[in-house]
Amino acid sequence: MTAAREHWGSRFGFVMAAAGSAVGIGNIWRFPYTTGTNGGGAFLLIYLAIIIGFGLSVAIAEMLVGRAAQRNPVGAFRTLGGGAWPLVGYGGVLTGFVILSFYIVVAGWTLAYVGFMASGSIHTTDAGQLSQVFSGFVADPVRPILYSGVFMALTAWIVVGGIAKGIERWNKILMPALFVILLALVLRAVTLDGAAAGLGFFLKPDFSKVTAETFYAAIAQAFFSLSIGMGTLLTYGSYLSRHEHLPKATLTVAMVDTSVAVLAGLMIMPAVFAFGFDPSAGPGLTFVTLPAVFASMPLGALFGVLFFTLLAIAALTSAVSILEPMVCYFVDEHCMSRRKVVIVAALVCFALGIPASLSFGIWSGVTIGGRNWFDLMDFLANNLMLPLGGLFTALFVGWAWKKATHELSNEGSLHLPWAPVWLFVLRFLAPLGILWIMASALLA
Ligand code: PHE
After folding, report:
1. Ligand 1 test: best mutation among 25, 33, 224, most atoms within 8 Å of CB?
2. Under DSSP, is residue 403 helix (H, G, I), strand (E, B) or coil?
3. Residue 367: strand pairing partners
4. 16, 168 Cβ separation under 8 angstroms
5. Partners of 372 in the β-ladder
6. Residue 419, C-beta contacts closer than 8 angstroms, at least 6 positions apart
7. CB 329 within 8 Å of CB 341
8. Which residues form the signal peptide (predicted)?
9. Of 306, 297, 313, nearest in space to 123 by CA
10. Is residue 5 part of a domain?
């Protein structure tokens, strides 16, 4: 059992922390390249439909469970549901390990790129050369692993320090800064010569490219980006006081998250086309195209350093939120010291990150079911664990937990005429949508 629980200092602070969790390399790195490999504008539309159609409702549901229980994911499902429901919480704790193991690898690249930008070593618009620098670096068996270790250590250091003061304060400063830099870079990218082709690709839907896989990719991306399905929102919600207007706060977070993803697309796609890169280049997209943009703008090196610093920070605020649920679980349920849990969890995640990093180099040929370790972790987390976590959260709040709407309305004090729609989404639309999308893609 927990002692008096710490709460967020202010509503703004909470929204920034939740937005800091949502906005991460999922938006700026994963979203643009996933859009690129899934046919551009059509993917964007499906993605938005999923966020509005059920992503938002599931996010509200997950946060609500945390707020009502004021506990970690396992404890929350145990107190409110009992029976087998805590399994959903355990699944979340496990998912945290899986996600962090590959998240820290990409986050480590962003740290390295801060250095590359500062040293001016990749100040060129030559697509071939930039691709070579990237693939050479990520294939290195040592350096990227060291960077992921540094990143893991930073994450652990913040989490050891506790929640409200550290996370909240950092997010309040860093998230607005991220927004400003992003806007400046979007302005530069859309005014590049030849930007129109990229904008067309990103915004014009080409439905001939849409398959069951497109939907699957969109749901995986939506859940990953909104941090749904592994107990992050639940845990952050558990530090929220009962009086907050939870739906409004969640809506704000979803809007910030989605805007940043769209802005990242607007920043990257024009550059991809203007400099002759391939939009379906995959994970390297951000790391090879943006340096070309920086090399073509005044004070580019400075913007480059700023951008990769902010990307690293966005990754950090997300990584903290991936680590926190498991830490919260071991501290709450097993009465372990926060420091000890953090150190052990961080070491485990770092170890799991080593094969993920080597997947881009000497272990690229080592595959399980056709996927190397990195792709396998990404696939397991995003395509299976998060959607299933979201599915069971929706089922729990929709069917099993009778007090859901009562809690949502702060015990009747908020007027929420749309609450029945929300409940309908959780009962039918979200579970059936998730199952249908997963089944049609997996059986295809
Ligand atoms: N939403 C984060 C991102 O887009 C990743 C994340 C996933 C964070 C799950 C917490 C939980 O980068």
Report:
1. 224
2. coil
3. 372
4. yes
5. 367
6. 405, 408, 409
7. no
8. none
9. 297
10. no
203: three-class secondary structure by DSSP:
helix
Asked if residue 6 belongs to a domain, the reply is no
- Domain-embedded: residue 203: yes
Per-residue pLDDT, 1: 42
Closest among 177, 382, 172 to 260, alpha carbons compared: 177
- Residues 6+ positions from 323 with CB-CB distance below 8 Å: 96, 100, 155, 156, 159, 342, 345, 346, 349
Other residues' Cβ atoms within 10 Å of the Cβ of residue 442: 11
Complex ipTM: 0.98
What pLDDT was estimated at residue 166? 67
Poorest-pLDDT segment among 3-7, 27-31, 283-287, 398-402: 3-7
pTM, rounded to two decimals: 0.93
CATH number at residue 159: 1.10.4160.10
- Is the CB of residue 54 less than 8 Å from the CB of residue 397? no
Amino acid letter for position 65? V
In a domain? residue 266:
yes
Query: Rounded distance, CA 314 to CA 321, Å?
Result: 11
> Tokens representing 309?
């610093």
Nearest CA, atom 7, ligand 1: 227
> Which residues 6+ apart lie within 8 Å of 295 measured at CB?
122, 123, 124, 125
Tokens at residue 176, please?
Answer: 């607005």
Please report the pLDDT score of residue 51 as a whole number.
96
**CB of 21 shorter than 6 A to ligand 1:** yes
DSSP 364: T
Measured from the Cα of 22, ligand 1's closest atom is 1
